[in-house]
Specification:
The chain is α/β, with parallel strands linked by helices. It has helices at 5-18, 25-45, 47-50, 74-85, 105-124, 150-161, and strands spanning 55-61, 64-71, 92-95, 98-99, 133-138, 141-148, 168-171, 174-175. 47% of the residues lie in helices and 23% in strands. The strands form 2 sheets. Strands 1, 2, 3 and 4 form a 4-stranded mixed sheet that branches. Strands 5, 6, 7 and 8 form a 4-stranded mixed sheet that branches.
């Protein structure tokens, strides 16, 4: 029986990187399914939440859900949060939706550049456990999620705050100490 070297290399890399985090592989897989489940339920709950009048970003980390983006009315923000909390597997919700018109494509491109820059800066800083921190940027606001110690969270926040283009930092860490 021959084994595909690419499959073996991918498995080895996955196990190696999985060991760099204090989340189980099961939690990581659950999060990968949780994001689209929450997004789908929100979209189905109200036409305005799936139309171009709203821009909703759903992020999951260890069962914690972040709703970021924009929606034009406060009741839509509230409804999105209520729907998200009812999805099986959601442990906690951070509803950070802004009651605004959706951000432009230019702003979203800029957010993607900021996120890439921040991930690179965190990777270069040995005090920051970059493999355990998820960075989401929406409309210039940076959200940090992860399982970290308070010192690691402070280091990550310091790196992020010093970067250009960051308007605000919102820490949504789960602390392990």
């Amino acid at each position: 029986m021959t084994r595909n070297p690419l499959i073996l290399a991918t498995l080895a890399l996955g196990l190696t990187l999985g060991g760099c985090s204090n989340r189980s592989i099961g939690n990581k897989i659950d999060d990968q399914f949780l994001e689209p489940s929450v997004a789908s339920e929100i979209s189905r709950s109200q036409a305005d939440l799936s139309s171009p009048t709203s821009h909703i970003v759903v992020t999951a980390y260890n069962g914690v859900i972040l709703l970021a983006g924009q929606t034009p009315r406060a009741e839509l923000k509230e409804q999105a949060g209520q729907v998200a909390t009812r999805v099986q597997g959601v442990k906690k919700l951070h509803n950070e939706l802004q009651v605004l018109q959706p951000s432009s494509l230019t702003a979203r491109s800029n957010d993607a550049l900021i996120t890439s820059k921040l991930k690179t800066l965190m990777l270069a800083d040995s005090a920051v456990p970059s493999t355990r921190i998820k960075v989401v940027t929406e409309n210039g606001i940076v959200y940090l999620l992860g399982l970290v110690t308070r010192a690691e969270g402070a280091s990550a926040t310091s790196v992020v705050q010093s970067a250009s283009g960051v308007q605000k930092v919102v820490k949504l860490f789960q602390y392990t100490d």
